[in-house]
Amino acid sequence: MGLFIEDLINFGNLMDAEIEVRLPENVLKNAYPDITFELKDGLLKMYYEKRGLFFKRKGELRLSEDSRMVSNDRDTGKRYIFMKPLTKDIPEVILKKGEFLSDGEFLGMDVWPAIKLTEVYEKIPRQFKDRLVVARYKLKKDGISVFLKVEK
Fold this sequence. Notes:
alpha+beta
């Protein structure tokens, strides 16, 4: 069966449930192939390539967790988690990618492409997949834990 079969019987239970989806480094690498991720508790390091005139240089961006800073955009289907950069500027190379968004002093990362690659997402009934929203997240050394809820 699936993760939610019992909850489908009691629809109210499903609306209040919070589902944890783990996004380990290999899932993140598949969802965002141009970026390498390194996770620690409360810290995310992103490694990317900057293209110069003749050479490619590697850049690093360190982000700290702010677990309640999330945004769900139903029009575009994007679900962002926002993290605080530990550097002054967010590199333009990162912002040019469609999965990232700058919001004041925070950098938003669309986690929806990575969530779609997980086994948990496959077990969710199709009637609820488009109604899932990100409630909060947690940066851990074994991956990003994203907590989803069903929007009423």
